[in-house]
Amino acid sequence: MVPGLVLCGAITLVAVAAQALEEHWLDHPYVEALVMAILLGIAVRTAWTPDARFRTGIAFSAKQLLEVAVVLLGASLSLGAILASGPALLAGIVGTVVIGISASVFICRTLGLPARMAILVACGNAICGNSAIAAVAPVIGAEPRDIAASIAFTAVLGVLMVLGLPLFVPLAGMSDNQYGVLAGLTVYAVPQVLAATVPVSLLSTQVGTLVKLVRVLMLGPVVVFFSLIAARLPQEVGSQPGAAKTGRLGFTKLVPWFILGFLALASAHSLGLIPDAAVTPLTRLAGFLTVLSMAALGLGVDVRVLARVGGRVTLAVTGSLVVLVVTSLLLIRGLGIS
């Protein structure tokens, strides 16, 4: 596995360094290392096809290391964030995520996208962008090309959201509190929420971050749900043999080991069993492994496949995002948030 791991590691280091330069020059990583890694992986794969020596390490990075990263993400979640948000807003966030996923899947399937790609796009839009796509992908047996396409186009719209969302403040006459809720409900990644709210006000940043963290907590239940229905998803035409198979017998077949580990660490953190000093290192390790996995996924993607599905994926992601924004605005109005 060493040659493949070294190749993925080299791409990861370049992506991480690129994000560090962004943070140094622009204060915020508008294009995260995770996106950089998958794009660099695709670029390498386009210019050069790794031979058999690299394939085992690349496959291990794309699957097993990604599953470990999902487990470690649980250490950063706490049930305290749910209690702090209040029951009305909590119910609204849950409803927004459910509506967002359902509407996105419907839009994607209507446009003819495969079922698994539809789920990836839906979860990326409704929960937390690239992280949600990376977490859900191994559960449903998604193809590398579907993961790459979902992340690539979701990432582009994520950057556009950061740049365009502040326009809602003057155009819609929103208060700082209202804008914070809107940003927390619609912007994909936590760093992007900061980038979209810091220029507006401190209150918008605080509210947006809280709402976003509660929204991220939906990832656990959503991943468990899709793990339970994964076996019923249709097999995609042209998929790798056995790529999307799931077993029918046994609890660990229905709920994969890494989901159990994710929930266990989240529960342990909520109960105070994981020291605060350990949360940051575990989160950083999870982030690094996720970037490494995305580099591996990029290395398995033929860019010509992305070109063939690009138009439909763009329409699907855009339509899903519009539904999410409209739902969020209706929630703000319905709850009477001022």
Write the layout of secondary structure elements.
Blueprint (H helix, E strand, L loop, with lengths): L1 H25 L6 H15 L4 H11 L1 H10 L6 H6 L1 H24 L4 H14 L1 H11 L3 H21 L3 H4 L4 H11 L3 H8 L4 H15 L2 H11 L21 H4 L2 H14 L5 H24 L3 H32 L4
Organism: Methylobacterium longum
Main location: membrane
InterPro entries: UPF0324_pro
Word description of this protein:
The structure is a single chain. The chain is mostly helical. The chain has one domain (2-233, 243-334). 77% of the residues lie in helices and 0% in strands. It is built from 18 helices and no strands. The chain has helices at residues 2-26, 33-47, 52-62, 64-73, 80-85, 87-110, 115-128, 130-140, 144-164, 168-171, 176-186, 190-197, 202-216, 219-229, 251-254, 257-270, 276-299, 303-334. Helix 9 packs across helix 18 (303-334). The protein starts with a helix and ends with a helix. The relative contact order is 0.19.
Poorly predicted residue ranges:
241-254
Largest sheet: none
Number of domains: 1
Query: Which strand-content bin applies to the residues?
Result: under 5%
> How many H/I helical runs?
18
- Structural class, by secondary structure, is mainly alpha
Distance between the termini: 56 Å
Rounded to an integer, what's the Rg over CA atoms?
A: 19 Å
Based on DSSP secondary structure assignment, what is the total number of beta strands?
0
- Characterize the overall form: globular
Order of helices and strands: HHHHHHHHHHHHHHHHHH
Mean pLDDT: 81
**Considering DSSP H and I runs of 4 or more, what fraction of the residues is helical?**
over 70%
